[in-house]
Amino acid sequence: MKKIRLAIIGLGKLGRKCAEGIFADQATVLAGIVRRTGSPPAPWLKVPAVTHISELKEVDAALICIPPDAVMGIAKDLLQSRIPVVECARLHGEAFLRHKSEIHRVALLHRVPAVVGAGCDPGALSLFRSYFALLAPHGHTETSLHTGTSLHHTLAAAGIKGVRKALATELKSTGGTIQRYVYVELEPSADAAEVEYAIVNDPLFLDEQTLVFPVPSIAALEETNRGVLLERRTSPGEPGHSSFLLEARFDEAGLAARMMLAAARSLPALQAGAHSPLDLPPGALWGEQRPAAEKEWL
Ligand SMILES: NC(=O)c1ccc[n+]([C@@H]2O[C@H](COP(=O)([O-])OP(=O)(O)OC[C@H]3O[C@@H](n4cnc5c(N)ncnc54)[C@H](OP(=O)(O)O)[C@@H]3O)[C@@H](O)[C@H]2O)c1
Question: Which of 1, 155, 207, 273 gives 20 to 30 Å between its CA and that of 291?
């Protein structure tokens, strides 16, 4: 299997998640990162970091992970170099259509495919909204955002020696029992095993199975935790009273990166021009895993 060689443009939150996703993906390989001059180094990456795409070798496609107002200029530059692109600028409605139309024009001119709006929202959530509306054409869709797993600060855990900050949540295990997850940010001198022992055996935590996870930053955990409730109900007069509900919790940048990688896998199957997630054949998002996916999910 020939791996797709990807470049990442911009190493912010989304760019980092794309890099992690590529490292964990068997179908793609990271050719390098394009960054602005003077951006702080990221030695953990172990791939070339350059300031222009022309400095990277054999790039099959580029994932654009930069602020929305900079996306069009960079996308045009890449398409002009005949490099297919995937992007997910947060644009919706008319603004999204104008953006897609301009990228389509340039992509056709240079005869390369581009995928636009392939993130979380726009992106994966747009697909769910669209399917719900397709299956219940006369109805009403409500989207509400909330913080993800109802994480709450726990003074009991934060009071334990060696713990700087702590968050807890209760989740149902696959076996149906309730488990308490306690995330702890430790003092540099703390012993993680001792902290875990103290929390698990604290009388306040003995009522449920308690699992302790040390994390580098509680603030970062709170920031990335997103949740969405997407609900579509048919209009009151419609027979059948269908309703569809998606309740999801996720890290937004991580989910957007997953969708970008899936879109990148679909590029070899696409014609020149701009494609939104609605234009993509769902099977193509699996790349070479398509037969296995079809067997498992149909
Ligand atoms: N559709 C979705 O669901 C979704 C989800 C998440 C993000 N996004 C989109 O993804 C993009 C990046 O988001 P993010 O959270 O990663 O942002 P971020 O953390 O601010 O990172 C953006 C990166 O872009 C580079 N950059 C900054 N200003 C630039 C400029 N003027 N020209 C070129 N590069 C520039 C920088 O990387 P270097 O220092 O390496 O150059 C910066 O770290 C945004 O457009 C956002 O709308 C979409």
Answer: 273
- With respect to residue 132, please indicate whether it lies within any of the assigned structural domains: no
Q: From atom 34 of ligand 1, which residue's Cα is the shortest distance away?
A: 66
Q: Residue 174 pLDDT more than 90?
A: no
Give me the mean pLDDT over the 38-48 stretch.
Answer: 88
Domain span at residue 209?
137-241
Selected residue with higher pLDDT from 45 and 175: 45
Judgement on whether residues 225 and 280 belong to the same structural domain of the protein: no
180/183 Cα distance (integer angstroms): 10
pLDDT at 74: 98
* pLDDT on residue 143: 85
Does any domain span residue 246?
no
Residue 112 is assigned to a structural domain of this protein: yes
The CA 156 to ligand 1 mean position distance, Å, reads 38
Same domain, 9 and 107: yes
CATH code of 233's domain: 3.30.360.10
Task: Please tell me the pTM assigned to this model.
Answer: 0.83
**Nearest-CA residue for atom 46 of ligand 1:** 89
What sign does the CA torsion over 28, 29, 34, 38 have? positive
- Do residues 41 and 74 share a domain? yes
Among 20, 44, 53, 65, residue to substitute to test ligand 1 (most atoms within 8 Å of Cβ): 65
Q: Give the pLDDT score at 79.
A: 98
Distance 12 CA to ligand 1 centre (A): 5
What CATH number should be reported for the domain holding residue 273?
3.40.50.720
In a domain, 129, yes or no: no
H or E element, residue 148? none
Residue whose entry in the numeric block shows the structure tokens 């509306």 = 133
Assess whether 157 and 115 both reside in one domain. Answer: no
Ligand 1: nearest atom to the Cα of 68: 45
Q: HEC states along 251-267?
A: EHHHHHHHHHHHHHHHH
Calculate ∠ Cα 236-240-241, nearest 5°: 40
Pocket probe mutation, ligand 1, options 66, 143, 251, max atoms within 8 Å of Cβ: 66
Average pLDDT value for residue range 12-40: 95
